Amino acid sequence: MSDSVPIVEGRGIVKRYGHVTAIDHSDFELRNDEILAVIGDNGAGKSSIVKAICGATIPDEGEILIDGKPVNFTSPTEARDMGIEIVYQTLAMSPAMSIADNMFMGREIRKPGFMGKFLRQLDRSAMEKFAREKLTELGLMTVQSINQTIETLSGGQRQGVAVARAAAFATKFIIMDEPTAALGVKESRRVLELIQDVKSRGIPIVLISHNMPHVFEVADRIHIHRLGKRLCTVRPEDCSMSDAVALMTGAMDPPGNLAA
Amino acid sequence: MSQTKDGTENYESAASRSDSVAEFDDHRRGFLGQVQHTLHANPSLVPLIVLIAAIIVFGLLLGSKFFSPFAMTLILQQVQIVGIVAAAQSLIILTAGIDLSVGAIMVFSSVIMGQFTFRYGIPAPIAVACGLAVGTMIGALNGWLVSRVKLPPFIVTLGMWQIVLATNFLYSANETIRSQEIEANAPFLQFFGTKFNIGGAVFTVGVIFMLILVLVLAYALRHTAWGRHVYAVGDDPEAAGLSGVNVHRTLMSVYMLSGLICAFAGWALIGRIGSVSPTSGQLANIESITAVVIGGISLFGGRGSILGSLFGALIVGVFTLGLRLLGADAQWTFLLIGLLIIAAVAADQWIRKVSA
Predict the structure, then answer these.
(1) Is B351 on the interface with A (CB under 8 A)?
(2) Model ipTM value
(3) Residues in chain B closer than 8 A to A80 (CB atoms)
(4) Which of A99, B129, B136, B193 is the most buried (most CB within 10 A)?
(5) Please, what is the end-to-end C-alpha distance for chain B in angstroms?
């Protein structure tokens, strides 16, 4: 697994905002078939590095390779066109609109023939069918109807729809920003299962989280970010939770063999 | 969930399935909850019910004087200008904006159509095209200030209202072009006033235009990607942007289209009053907002149907004509409209609670 070309590789990435250096010559690596957790203290720059990977910020220095080829994203839309999906912490869904509408927001399907070409009519039934299939695949079709508005769903269901949307369209990998932060115990469990389910479909995942038990439960590797750069990556089986927190806060130096 | 045809056969699958379904089924929804839910799904139903009720009440009070094809179509003629402007206003309000400059754009466009024809001797169709272009450009300026400079729509259009209205008076030198003059030299300007009879019912081109405009916009908002984007931008612009909607382009298209529709309203205004007057249509902005609010479109954006705005405009028209035929003081109309506005917003808040 570790010998193959990483799906994403970042080398010496730098991002400065005025005097502040958010990313300081950091590296990043996501391999095939893995869940990579990114942890770090507040302000360590973990979201900055992930934003650089998906085109939300443009790095000042360094290079990003996807499947071994250098890319220069200028917007998240470009990353999306390459099959990179993001589940935002805010979920980025319109509460007054239906599940199907939200899943296809910005990439609607039009009807074939005259109605679609000239009257630009949306193919609602095709979109609803696709949305229903995707939700069923992930065991989320417990919602009453695909035309239910997002605001009528519970927090866990909303998260589920957001994950389903990402899983439906991602061909490269998915970035998830704090997917369990706003959820209760039971709902978090469902989402963690969902994350593993998506991974088992062969889509690697970058998981940003503060929640150590959740990270240690699902991650294959843990990228520990500190002071704007990757401090080290550890395997959850080689490292205890308290060691990870100590590394992340600077209370402990990384052992030589784990240093990035 | 599909109903099982044979109770005994599917007993087991139904039983094993039930726990996951029950989790999200709202069994406690009573009659009132059901009503609330239906109205939430069909936001233009409230104004439609009010409209039909108003027609029935005035019909009972006034008999055939009110309940005739002539009176009914008279209402349509009286509301055509507000109806067209309300369609433009609806688009803006759906994006969580507000447009105070709609009336000014309308009047200025009509003045341009008139003055270009009579002052410079430009053929009327070209003058009309110029008026439509100017309306679209003012809309584009509004849109750019809202979307790019990130100024609040209220402030942008409050300023634009004054600017356009002042320009209108300065440019026209406060001069009215008389109806007979237009009729003799440039009847094309009065095209929207062309009347035709269908068994006692009198329609004008302006009325037909209003109805077609609302239907076309209702289709576009409901069945095209552009329409879904308008709602998404009004609902939560940040979420829309993150899910791949081009928020700037959507806002620009809405403000430009709104400007164009207002310019069309200016053309229809010439047909309606016959002359080109820089002082007409002063209340169009407030009247259009009234129609939109009564029509059940949320001022917070992203909710409501453009058909509601048409019903809202018609409700005002029915009240105005009905009360006048009853011989009531015109102030009663304003009083009742005021009550309706507050009731409509209260209903909107109640319906929105479905989500809580």
Answers:
(1) no
(2) 0.86
(3) 244
(4) A99
(5) 24
